[in-house]
Amino acid sequence: MKEGVMRDKKLTRIIDICDALRRKDKHSSTEDIDGLVLDALVFVKKKTLRFSGNMTIVNEEEVRYFFQSTMIDILRDRNMMNPTLFLCACYTAELLTRLFYRQFRHVNVFGFLVENAKTGNPFLLQEGADACLLFSSLFPKKGNAQAINARFYKEMGVRLYGSFYRQTEREIGRHMSEHFLVMSDVAAQCMRTLRVYRKY
Fold first, then answer.
1. pLDDT tens per residue across span 40-51
2. How confident is the model at residue 35 (pLDDT cuts 50, 70, 90)?
3. Handedness of CA 187, 121, 103, 146 (dihedral sign)
4. Which residue, 51, 76, 67, is CA-closest to 194?
């Protein structure tokens, strides 16, 4: 079988995880979903480039796979890997990747809240929650003042993802709201890993 066809089939298997969770099909067993996650883990690991303990990143796709792979490793080391956290890890990896390649609409969470109040666009709540996740991950507490800020962003992120889910019924909002603290901590550890690589 050609490599392109193999890759497409594996990508389809990853997408199937989202469908299985969304449908909650009574015919889909836990073993089926675990199998999808295992296939996805293997695919992500193979796509991550590591050489002799160091890392070489060439393009946006490889940055994304680095973050995905590192967060998956962290979750597995903590014995926390499951289909929902796998999806959250992929989502968070996309956010971290955007830091390198895209500009955000606002530089702080309040900009998203003000614009949401004016327009009623629920996706601004999602973007605000995304910003909270990044702020709480990139600037973990290092003293009293920063501890208050980190706590604020974590509490606000949980609320905004929850509000986004209630207004849109997008499952990722519910998952990220329920697992915000875990993903914030995992993303922070992931960024510390990136700093270690940069020393070489």
1. 555 555 554 443
2. low
3. negative
4. 67
Helices first, then strands: H and E counts in the chain: 9, 2
| Gyration radius from the chain CA atoms | 18
Residue 71 near residue 44 (C-beta atoms within 8 A): no
Alpha carbon of 17 to those of 1, 87, 99: distances in Å?
A: 23, 8, 26
Task: Count Cβ neighbours within 10 Å for each residue of 67-94 and write b for 16 or more, e otherwise.
Answer: bbbbbbbbbeeeeebebbbbbbbbbbbe
Report pLDDT digits (tens) over 48-65: 444 334 555 567 888 888
User: Distance (Å, rounded) from C-alpha 134 to C-alpha 158?
Assistant: 13
- The residue assigned the tokens 């999602």 is 126
